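Consider the subject:
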Amino acid sequence: MPAGFSAARGLVFTFDPEARDYDWLVVYENLPSAGGERRSMRVEELACAPENTILFTTEPSGIKIYGRAFTRQFGHVVTSQEPFALRHPGRIWSQAGLRWFYGEGSRRLMTADEIAGHFPEKTNVLGTVCSTKRQGHTLHRLRYDFTQAMAARMPDLDVFGRGHRPVDDKAESIDPYKYHLAIENHLAPHHFTEKLADPFLGLSLPFYFGAPNAADYFPADSFIPIDIRKPDEAWRIMREAIDNNEYERRLPAIREARRRVLEDHNLVALIADVVEKNGTRPKGDGKAVLKSQRAARQGHPLLTAGDFVFREALHLKNRIAGLLRR
């Protein structure tokens, strides 16, 4: 987090999973393992009121359905999943402060303040990161096919990632490039990931296919929307932007987008917002617990069976939609 953030918001963050002195408990995706088990079976006896608990989900509905037995334990759920996929009385439909990968490699780990002061020299045109995954129930296949088609049509496009050029730090695929092709694996409001945040952090201009309301979070000039379902149109938009030097014109907006990633749209900022808006409930005399995803499922087999059927039906629907797009 940026230096001075905790003091400015009047909060103290503790990242020790064994801590017992806290007013709020935040879970990012799942409770950590308690005894080294491969899939967490942790049961946390709460040291705060159950209302003072927050779950942040990390996966879209096309990849994962969070079981009702798990989510209903929390006072608040911050999620980009659509309301039909995750129902909860305390749901907050928002981007979920997903971690970024820019500046994170085996040789270095850049702090937020280091990223804020980093102005890479842009000597190349267009880069992207794309794995060889081609799942049919997500946008992986469409992303891969589009990227391959653009690489054949745009000699100035460099493709990185598994099956292409490996990188130790994603910054290597962003820093030298004025433009970055950023394609999400799921198309839904509020669901943007490191695929958009990372190029902002490296001050590249994203050609973006993803959250249709991304301009609610970032300046409209900080990215250029494309539709990879219309490859000829997307190619034309990218080619014209590059030829017209849109990067130079939009650089102030890109810098503002980077500031928002670092200061406004990260996990700790979202936690602070939830705490400040809802206030801290006092802990009562009763005992309450939070169970990991697996432990919660095992305790509610009927709910879990219903969630499984829903997930499989949703994945089938997405696969059919993917076949119709081909």
Q: What stands out?
A: The mean pLDDT is 92. The chain has two domains: 5-97+266-325, 112-263.
